[in-house]
Amino acid sequence: MEVDESVEEEPVPSPVQPPMSRDRVPLQKSSVCSRSYFMVVMVFFHVYIINVIALLFYVHYSNGSSRKEFASSTQHQHRSFDRPVSHERFSRTMHLPRIEGIRVGHVQKVSLVPNKVHEMRTLSLKPLLFEIPGFLTDEECRVVIQLAQLKGLMESQVMVPEGQEELTEQLNLSPEEIFNLLDLNQDNQLQPQEILTHSRVRDGIWLTPENLREIYAGLHADSDGNGLLSLEEFRALSGDAFQSFLKRRGLKRSQLVRNSRHTWLYQGQGTHHVLQDLRKRVTLLTRLPSELVELSEPLQVVRYEQGGHYHGHHDSGPVYPETTCTHTRLATNSTSPFETSCRYITALFYLNSVEGGGETTFPVADNRTYEELSLIQNDVDLLDTRKNCDKGNLRVKPTKGTAVFWYNYLSDGQGWVGEQDEYSLHGGCVVTRGTKWVANNWINVDPDYQRQARYQELVSQQQQEAPGEPSKSSSSQHIDHHVEL
Amino acid sequence: MEVDESVEEEPVPSPVQPPMSRDRVPLQKSSVCSRSYFMVVMVFFHVYIINVIALLFYVHYSNGSSRKEFASSTQHQHRSFDRPVSHERFSRTMHLPRIEGIRVGHVQKVSLVPNKVHEMRTLSLKPLLFEIPGFLTDEECRVVIQLAQLKGLMESQVMVPEGQEELTEQLNLSPEEIFNLLDLNQDNQLQPQEILTHSRVRDGIWLTPENLREIYAGLHADSDGNGLLSLEEFRALSGDAFQSFLKRRGLKRSQLVRNSRHTWLYQGQGTHHVLQDLRKRVTLLTRLPSELVELSEPLQVVRYEQGGHYHGHHDSGPVYPETTCTHTRLATNSTSPFETSCRYITALFYLNSVEGGGETTFPVADNRTYEELSLIQNDVDLLDTRKNCDKGNLRVKPTKGTAVFWYNYLSDGQGWVGEQDEYSLHGGCVVTRGTKWVANNWINVDPDYQRQARYQELVSQQQQEAPGEPSKSSSSQHIDHHVEL
Question: What residues have CB less than 8 Å from A142, skipping those under 6 apart?
Fold first, then answer.
């Protein structure tokens, strides 16, 4: 709209003028041969030529912009990212289309590769989750697995997490304050659920209700034996008492939040064409601007051996006013103890069909309500993918070549990323037989539009300075942050 | 896009020509005074003037259309309804925006009247349901009630429904076929739920599990006394046996599906300004094309006395390929035994605050699944708004001036009306104290785009023939169909 208005203010030749000059012609018939009259005619002539050319440019210009508008808003194609003159505030020119889920079981046809139509089925609305069989060919699955093996995989989680006390120390909280934060229902006692719910957030050891009873007994923590911790009982424990106890007793990999190996594969220019194709296909699938997809994390390839699992988790955390995003942090120069990966979308590809187990579970998909505490009830922990996968609301069977993708954040109602979608909670069920290979593409978007815009501007400036290595410069940043995931 | 392309094919003056004619000027300097040369110059001159005018028109035209496109797609304003030359197939030029619910509890600001901002809260996503406090002023509520009283209200449902056997007769079904249709779980026996579920659809008497036991006993229908009807037992009953039994025993108004009185108020030109304002406000609220809102049913005003209720129901039925819509039926000349009102949106206004009861209940709102049979379990019938309003998922308290609105149909994924949203099931809880006044605005849209387009074309042709009475001609059609609702 702004473009149209500003152009209208330019001097546009009035269509009233020409008839006036035509009227004068017969009146001055006698002096038609004079040089001055010829000059006047030629001046008019040139003015009109210039006007015609100016109008042609204007038509071309306004035409182009309206076409762009139309394409991006009605056909959900990519809108180019306009950079305004001011470097302080970016106007909201980028919109993120969300695919309509309609209802669970709805199937829509999508065109992702030439000469083939894929079917995309809605699996749930909370989170907005889709399944696309045959997204990758068998050959492509094979290539991705081999590229990952060539690069080498590392443990997804180290056995003994380090630095787990950092945040608490940084925040400088007293035991009373921690007790209060843990005491979600504010009854001045810590129920086992309250301990377990907290424990998953903070460190990499997975506590079960049985573990907790064991720990209470071993540490004599629950002196009155009622299964609850009072403030006095809690104060008697050191900050890492539970973890230390378990570590002393010896930890198995199956007791971690995550038991798998993974690696990262770049997808930019110069990489294997299957990886580049995959990224293009994800862009078509999600209908997001290609810049966003290209500036996102590399492809993560994960291998779960028999017995491997990944307990229930969110791929990206909630966003509070002070939360920063990993991918835009460098561009915004902000320091905050709260940082999350801001993965707007997760696209998960099954690279093989698993012989037994290994489903992706969405324990609270399409639940009417979401309450963190009610995830653990009567010793049944819905987040435990080694025990309770069968009790969740939705499970996706790993089938070679199938892709699923979902939104980890809601819309903000204005075409941008909003709050975290808590229902996007998911996990990898234990592999009971065989090996499970999957790959993840995350699309990172900062819920703060200004930060995302500033980040993209910075990257594009860097790319202009060093045009030879556009893909490396954008994704090398990611590997530092995500190598430990 | 079509417009742009066709215009580009028109002859556009080439900017190369003028320099050529300029080059010739110095070469023919001597003959500059000749009349023929003057004629040539003037012809060029006029051709350019015509071109400039043509270009100005084109700029104006393409400008206008791009602005329209932009407004309707990004700001959700109304798109004009283009009528193509062909009267057979209408191209999809009309799109119906759906308001984003984001999540339950999300609040968005909406501008509906000058100098006031309303807050619209998402109450549920299934159905997509919003609440807007203060949508009507106290004065407006008073006017609507008085206009309804002036016009006079009639019983919403007659005591003894007539013509209830029509459909069955028309379809010419044998008792075996009916038995099979009723036997939803195909166990060759009719459970009480199966009888009750069917009964609500077919006629106006509300059967409760207790009624059914009474009827079985009175008619000796369940000869083996197991609470189930076998095919033999079912065959022994006549088609209207249950209803006849209840009628013989005497019916109270509280035993009907609906116990209220109502009337219809036109909202077109010449009617009270409050009614016209209300319609405009509904257009702004729903962001639908104003033509659609104007061609919809008149305002229905309903009064529930103490003890009044409306059991759980859908405002509009499912749409199968052979289903016709009441409002487009005349335009499409189709005859089908399956007809529904095709109410895309229900906007419900509370005209007073009820002293006790009278909530609007959405028993399955945001449920994970919808199963008709599981609505009746262990003698608890979630559709019964006299008994079980407290057991439903969501209740809206009637507060004077508050509006709620919801979508009775899903999107089809292409900007038009899709399948029925079964979760839009709702009812009016029994009024325990005082009187309840509400008004309903339904927005009728045919899920068949072609039929809706043909209907709108027909109405606009009629309006052109008789421009004096545009509002009457469109809504007089409705009163015939909906007087009995």
Answer: none
**Residue A105, helix vs strand vs coil:** coil
Which of A62, A63, A108 is facing B413, going by the closest CB pair? A108
3-state secondary structure of B260: coil
- Domain B107-156+259-482 fold is Jelly Rolls (2.60.120)
Instruction: List pLDDT tens digits, range B380-420.
Output: 899 999 999 999 999 999 999 999 999 999 999 999 999 99
Contact A418 B13 (CB under 8 A): no
A56, A368, A419: residue with CB nearest B393: A368
CA angle B381, B384, B388 (to 5 degrees): 75
- Amino acid letter, A372: E
CA–CA gap between residue A237 and residue B145 (Å, rounded): 67
The CATH architecture one would assign to domain A167-255 is Orthogonal Bundle (1.10)
Fold of the CATH domain A107-157+258-482: Jelly Rolls (2.60.120)
CA B122 to chain A, closest CA, distance in angstroms equals 12
Which tens digits make up the pLDDT trace of B187-227? 888 888 888 876 664 567 888 888 888 888 888 888 888 88
Q: Would the CA dihedral through B220, B223, B226, B232 be positive or negative? A: negative
- The domain spans of chain B are 2-70, 107-156+259-482, 166-254
Whole-number Å distance between alpha carbons of B129 and B124: 5
Neighbours of B45 (CB within 10 A): 18
Cβ-defined contact of A62 to B67 (cutoff 8 Å): no
pLDDT tens per residue, range A404-440: 999 999 999 999 999 999 999 999 999 999 999 999 9
Residues of B in contact with A51 (CB under 8 A): 52
pLDDT tens per residue, range A142-173: 999 999 999 999 999 876 555 445 555 556 77
* Domain spanning B166-254, CATH architecture: Orthogonal Bundle (1.10)
Residue A209 has pLDDT above 80, yes or no: yes
Distance CA B19, CA B23 (A): 6
